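Bench notes, afternoon.
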Amino acid sequence: MNLHAIANGLISAVHPNETVTLYRATGQMNVRGEIKAVYAAGEAVKAQIQSEGDDALAHSDAVASRVGQNETNRRFYLLAANQADKPAGLVRPLARSGDLLQRQDETWWLITALTEDFSAAGWVAVRATLQVKAPEGPPL
């Protein structure tokens, strides 16, 4: 039973889904001596965007305070994800720096964690951090 489909129908009546553009990190390249992330072409994905829960915020606040920075985190429930090509954060063995999401308001979000993987049922939940500026480098 796909409980997400049931819950999403109720939630989206109050807080509508949004179409975001997902850019999958494919690796890195050297551009004039500077290592830059490389992303595949963007694909439109339906998303339900919500604030993080108290436990996740407490953890991320503790980590951010140790390094002296503030972050804005959100949870994105991405629909129509598939098991073979699901979004991901940092994957060191593949030199992937984390997939990016671009919202319709032109804000950029870096996926930092895959928090729930129900890709077999057609959705995943990811934690994403608001980026201060748009990413540089190909192909964006």
